[in-house]
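Predict structure. Chain length: 227.
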Amino acid sequence: MSELTGLEIGQEVAQRTFSERHHPAQHDRWVLAEAVVLSIVTLVAAWSGFAAAKWNTESRLSIAHGNTHHLDANRAFQQSITLRTWDASAFNSWFTAYIAGHKSAAQVAERRFRPEYRVAFNAWLATDPFNNPNAPPGPQSMPQYRAEGAAEAKALDAKADDETARGEHEGEIADDYIRTTVVLASVLFLVGISGHFPRRVRIGLLILGTVLLVGAAMAILRLPGPP
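Prediction complete.
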């Protein structure tokens, strides 16, 4: 069996050598076709790899920016909590003095109000809270009340979510380019080894590589270019 296999291999090599010697033009055409396909695949694969790297970098930057905005939002929210606590403490001091009938102490406590809080406090007093059962429970329940940092934290959180979503989308684009690059690498392999096979197999591998190349090129055309 081994001698027969060796004989068959020898015959195949001899036939290929004979064919190449007596049909040099045909042989040159296939070599040229392979060279053209390999050249195109190399350029497209290089472009696809470059685009994948650029989108991957853009994805990391967007996600990093999103994380930074989340940290800034947390700081702004903590600032608003601190101000709310300060406002509540100042109001409790005023309320205790007012109920006890200590006008001077109530005035001192009122002077501790932040200017922004005083606006909400005056609006709350205008509702006659000590006689009106429908009055808001306190100045912080008034629409005029603004705790610095609360709105900023909300805006930063929204911006962070947008940046993170953008980064995830950019990462998906990078993955698509990487998959295309893998397909192109398989084309390089198939066309590269085609010359070591008989004519029919060689043609089949070249056709398969060309089909994969066209499919990969169409996939790249549907993807956005590098940022």
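Summary: DSSP finds six helices and no strands in the chain.
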